[in-house]
Amino acid sequence: MRDMNLNYLIGVLLFIFWIVALVDCIKGNNPNKVVWIIVIILLPFLGTILYFLFGKTARG
C-alpha cells in the first residue's frame, strides 16, 4: 500500500512538472515554440526535461 501511494505521488508530481513546462512554453516567446510544444506533448517526461535544459536557454 505504501509503495502504491509513492507511485501516485511521483505520477502527480511528474504530471504537474509536465503542465508547468507546457504552460511556460506557451506563454514564452521562444522562436521554436511550436516545435517545443510538440516535443513536450509527444514525449511527456523526456520532452519536459529537454525543454527545461535547452528550450528555456534558447530564449536569451
UniProtKB/TrEMBL annotation:
It is a multi-pass membrane protein. GO terms for cellular component: plasma membrane. Pfam families: PLDc_N. Residues 16-55 form the Cardiolipin synthase N-terminal domain. Keywords: Cell membrane, Membrane, Transmembrane, Transmembrane helix. It is found in: Cell membrane. The chain crosses the membrane at residues 35-54. It comes from the Bacteria. InterPro entries: CLS_N (IPR027379). Its main location: membrane. This is Cardiolipin synthase. It comes from Lacunisphaera limnophila.
